[in-house]
Amino acid sequence: xxxxxxxxxxxxxxxxxxxFLVGGVFSLGIVAVVHTVEERLISTDLHNELERMVQRDMRxxxxxxxxPDMRLYFVPLAEVAQLPAHLRDLPAGFSEVExxxxxxxxxxxxxxxxxxxxxxxxxxxxARERLLYKVVLIGFLISVALxxxxxxxxxxxxxxxxxxxxxxxxxxxxxxxxxxxxxPDYAKDxxxxxxxxxxxxxxxLRAALARERLFTSDVSHELRTPLMVINSSxxxxxxxxxxxxxxxxxxxxxxxxxxxxxxLVQTFLALARNQGDSDTQAPRATLAEVARRQTxxxxxxxxxxxxxxxxxVAPEAERLLWHxxxxxxxxxxxxxxxxxxxxxxxxxxxxxxxxxxxxDSGVGIPEEQREAMFQPxxxxxxxxxxxxxxGLSLVRRICQLQGWSVTLGDSAAGGCRFDIDLGNERVAD
Length: 429
Prior knowledge:
phosphoprotein; four-stranded antiparallel β-sheet; alpha+beta; HATPase_dom; Helix Hairpins; TCS_sensor_his_kinase; five-stranded mixed β-sheet; two-component regulatory system; 54% helix
């Protein structure tokens, strides 16, 4: 169940509802008890008074002796119609009637062949009873108001540890930093258990992140040596004068794959060690420089596939400096993706002052699948090549880390168009 109210408001509402229910039941109970006691006591008193008058006063032929606030009506049973209209249909026993804006208790009985109606003025008691009901109502409303105030005051005290815990957790931005545990600062109650759960979760998160970073760093570092050996071997083979022509194609693919793997290793190592753009030691380059290097890297492969290579570099692309390893990795992955998914037409690299566009005339990606393509290990339905579906995921990770933005849309030829907006960087000297 999703709650849209804050915890403090829910506590206040709980206090008010509890007081409303308990106070309401208590108030109704008071009214019911007063009414029941009134009916039973007055009914017994009037019954005794009527029997006294009939048996003691009227049986001897005398007149009944009445208190000043009482009146007695009696007629033979066959002549009940002679009674006043408001007294004819009263049921036997106790009743309450109103007469000339005055309130009376009425007791109806049939004794010795006569129909008796004994009235007792109860206007004063009715006024006191109404006052009692008003007092009960005012007390009920005051109790609800006090419950709201008390609930508000207690809610602040109750949730104060929760608010404090939330602030402490929110301030722990550096998850890998060694910080003291939260649980010892709290009592051994529900909030203390919550703090302990946060400690356990943060410890597991620290351990997982540390393992991931160490793994990435160690793997990236250890792969450099075999990659250097592979690159050196490829260079030696290329320099061999009697290399068979049929071996040149596989050798070129091996050289390109080794170079791509070396770039990925450098990118992963930079991602493992760098937090945002705080790595001031990383090499910097302009967009134009990176674009020209990527042209040297990819133009031959693009044209060998029968595609047209288009390069457009704006003069402003020579002004700003960028994080070269990340920029090269983003541009290279997008060009590799375009080459894998384009069979005819062109691949275009358009470089501006603070961003670039990679466009192709390939199969394209349906709009409903574009967001999923940036997830790890996701490939298009027309996937080709030997990729694992990590290229676009790596592009998004780098862009998020650097504060860049990547947008996927349709090209003019129906393929893909990747727009990379880099923001602002340092101006080249």
